[in-house]
Amino acid sequence: MKEQVKTNQKRLPYVVIPAITIAIYLLTKLPAISLFKLQLTILSLLVLAVYSYFLKRKKLTHLTNDTFVYLLIAFVLFLVASTGWFFSPFFFFLYLLAIFLAFIFSAKMSIIFVVVLATLFSFNIGEVDLAYDLIVVLSFLTTIPLSLYLRKKYLKLKGSIKETPVLQNKTTGKKQSSGSFEPLKRIRLETKSEE
What we know:
Number of strands: 2
Shape: globular
Number of domains: 2
């Protein structure tokens, strides 16, 4: 039973994040509600700030809390929506959000997020300028290989840091842990020993 609950909790972001994305996109496209986009952005920022305060008060980490991530996604989407989606000066936050999702959840989550947004954007291609809209959607799709590459390199670097043996100081003979700069220190030690 506990394993089933854990499995469901792991699958939850794959439903919630696309649902948030679709809901906010459609909500901000409705003429009656589009007048209140800025107010919704401010409200989502306030909710995010209050929730962040409570997490800090309970001494919990923000990025491991799924609800915090959902609120952050909602805020970024409202921010981009309230400033004009394609023409938003904050549109680059969507690129960063896709990469962020690849690191926090998985590469599959990032791909789902990008595909959902690209699909929603594709319905509006040609409203203003066909070429510009097409380039924006295609450039947004390039975050998929970028996030896959960055995640792969990060995991490789993280794995090399954990797998490195503990160094032994030649002068004192004591073992020392070199922390997160292990690859750099190992390179320095190898070059010194070659001299």
